[in-house]
Amino acid sequence: MPLKDNSSLQAMIFCAGLGTRFKPWTDKHPKALAVINGKSLLQRNVEYLQQYGITEVIVNVHHFVEQIVEAIEKNKGWGSNIIISDETDAVLETGGGLLNAQKLFNPAQRFITLNADILTDLNINDLLKYHEAHKPLISLAVGNRNTSRNLLFDAAGRLSGWRNNTTGEERISIPMVKPAAKSYDCVVVFEYDVFNLNYFEGKFSLIDLYLELAKSHTILGFNHNAERWIDVGKPESVAIAEKMFL
Prior knowledge:
This protein is of the alpha/beta class. The protein contains seven helices and 14 strands.
């Protein structure tokens, strides 16, 4: 089934985190402006979206707001239309940040989210095709990385739970047999209906939202085959990212 023109698709890049793992940089700067081979993480993700025709971008801000706003204005959004979702008053985490930005999204239209500190060459068109074909409420890009926490999926690829591999804690949304454990790779397609179904308020994680909605709605994992994916979450990951993304 052919996809609609991506130029009408909006995306949100999460930039409001305190970046505590990225000190000392984040003592004076937002993590989203950490530089990889001459380009900030934010710029690289804006340009990543542009590769797929997505130029309408919402960016949430909290930590050193003025620096992010200045970078966007100075660079004229790197060629994209960037709208600021202001979280100056409180850190809302990813779920709360998404809810706070609801008024900035086009009503009744699906959208994409990604994290500023993730760099990848994951094919967004493939993710969109998967979402269009299966029509879930949410499609999560997932992989097979070694990670301390996994999302759990049933045989049909439906999100069914979450596991902390360090503590053994599990949160089960749908009982399953032999769940498939996948890494959450932070590129996501949402239907706008997610706003009508959410009952969380204030500060909360998207993981909490996924696990709650999975009890009654279809959330699927899209197994991507991206060659490059890295969480630039700690200063030591910068050197690795610079070898991957020139």
